[in-house]
Amino acid sequence: MAMMENELPVRNRAKSYEKESKLAFIIKDLNRNKFIYIMLLPVLAYYGIFHYGPMYGLQIAFKDFSPALGIWGSEWVGFQHFTEFFNGFYFWRLIKNTLLINIYELLFAFPAAIVLALLLNEIRSNMFKRVVQTISYLPHFISIVVVVGMMVDFLARDGLINQLLVMFGFESIAFLRQPEWFRFLFISSGIWQGIGWGSIIYLAAMATIDPTLYEAAKMDGAGRWKQTLHITLPGIMPTIVILLIMNMGSMLSVGSEKVLLMYNASTYSTADVISTYVYRKGILEASYSYTAAVGLFNSVISFILIVSANSISKRVSENKLW
Amino acid sequence: MRISTSERVFGGFNALLMVILCFITMYPFLYVLFASLSDPASVAKHRGLLLIPLGFTLDAYKAVLDNPMISTGYRNTIFYVVAGTALNLFMTALGAYALSRRNVYFKDFFMFAIVFTMVFHGGLIPTYLVVGNLGLLNTPWALIVPGAISTFNLIIMRTAFQQVPISLEESARMDGANDFTILFRVIIPLSMPVIAVMILWYTVGHWNSYFSALIYLRDRELYPLQLILREILVNNNTDSMMTGASTLDKMDVGETIKYATIIVSTLPILVLYPFLQKYFVKGVMIGAIKE
């Protein structure tokens, strides 16, 4: 069998390369690893077209995009769409709604999964623990359409929740038509759907904590509460921080998919967020340039948030996403 | 080990809390199930929690299964799930393999460019325009191609591929295998647990997704199940389901039809869930220890 180039001993190979020009070196490498590059091609094409393509297309935020002229042919208008958005009637409402939903999520939904993980960790019976886990993960796999569909049904004027309220002597409430209920319903249904699933990653982190730490703490007379406070929590802190950073990044892109299903004209005042506004204005009303500007604003802020959360965390705790 | 009173109280309280949690999680599904099997008129009259079906009839299911929109939706969704997941897996595996090899030119740059898309993206409108320019609007491909790779899954798969011992790859190469053979005959068979997890995640993702269909599809014939569900459950439009029933009946029947629709559309996941759960969990674990 003929000795092929790529089967030369490593040392010889390195030596022979030194003599070659860089270009020849690259060509040789391309040839030797050609199948890898062939594999890479569709992948890079995918990212180029569907991820970097839209980034290129973002320039329409600074143009007056008309589909007939195309992205390149449309005229530049500078920051006109941005000023229009910033000075527009909806700007503060959208910012406020988007931020409030996120802040509530951070305050209630984010810790909820941690608390559940801590409580599950305290259950001694493995059997019981497994049953609770299995049940609590389930809603994660139900589509958001079905979840909102069930909410619409249960929260309707004559739905289950109102039937119960009336049975206990309360007034019935048109939950989904009243703006003041929107955030509560959005966050609490989110907790219902995500708490179990969210707890898995913390439980995984807890499983890696060195058991001798607990032994030592017990020797020192620490009860379960102290053990949780001084061993378990610090043990899962890196995980908490990483997930927190990731949450920061998605702050402004809050689940338009769910809001879109849950809201209606009567709850816009608290429910309309940046991404749903982009959907209505952009897709339904086809004002592409304006909503591309709104979307760009959104992406840039998210980017800044995630980068700063990462660097702050890197400085204070050495936990980082990258 | 002695257990103090306060710990016992906490334990009891904790267990109670967990039971309540399980009840709150499960009950909505049970209510839907019971109501879907009940006699429509009795459900309409009933107030409060349902603990068993009231009467028993499968009429609602018959109406759901007879509905042409549901069956087209089902068929479309199955196509999107199968074709979509196949493309997902193929593309993710290619990327994961190529980027897990040590000596690939510009690998770090490619990796950076890919991970960068997780923190910055062009947003809805430019993406929509790209899909439009490619002529994918209102075609089934719009639901499959733009999401061909999930970057998060790519990273997980790459990590798994890196862990396959290099010696296996080298011996295959000795035997004359090229990279495609190595990927499909050596690496993937050795990474089955991760592949299984990826299949599950992508499948459930396609099954449950409605947003891209909402944006990209106009033609009702192409609608996936979730968009049909949106009409029936969220927009409260069950008219298409009932031909022939009188108006009064319609209101009652409409309710039970909604419940039956929920069950029918979620059944595959509900049935498979207990068997698949551990793989899903494994996926999260793998994701947690990436890097």
What does this structure look like?
The complex is a heterodimer of chains A (322) and B (291). Helices cover 73% and strands 1% of the residues of chain A. Chain A is mainly α and 322 residues long. Chain A has a two-stranded antiparallel sheet with strand order 1-2. In chain A, helix 6 packs antiparallel against helix 12 (224-249) and helix 13 crosses helix 15. With 291 residues, chain B is mostly helical. Chain B is built from 13 helices and no strands. In chain B, helix 3 (59-66) packs across helix 13 (247-288), helix 4 (68-100) crosses helix 7 (151-162) and helix 10 runs antiparallel to helix 13. Chain B is globular, with a radius of gyration of 25 Å. The mean pLDDT of chain B is 88. Classes of the chains: A mainly alpha (322), B mainly alpha (291). Chains A and B meet through helix 2, helix 3, helix 6, helix 7 and helix 8 of A and helix 1, helix 4, helix 5, helix 6 and helix 9 of B.
Set out the fold topology.
The complex is a heterodimer of chains A (322) and B (291).
Chain A: H1 10-19, H2 22-32, H3 34-57, E1 63-64, H4 70-73, E2 75-76, H5 80-87, H6 91-121, H7 126-137, H8 144-154, H9 160-167, H10 179-207, H11 211-219, H12 224-249, H13 256-262, H14 268-271, H15 274-284, H16 288-317
Antiparallel strand pairs in A: 1-2
Chain B: H1 5-37, H2 40-45, H3 59-66, H4 68-100, H5 107-119, H6 124-133, H7 151-162, H8 166-174, H9 179-190, H10 192-208, H11 211-216, H12 225-234, H13 247-288
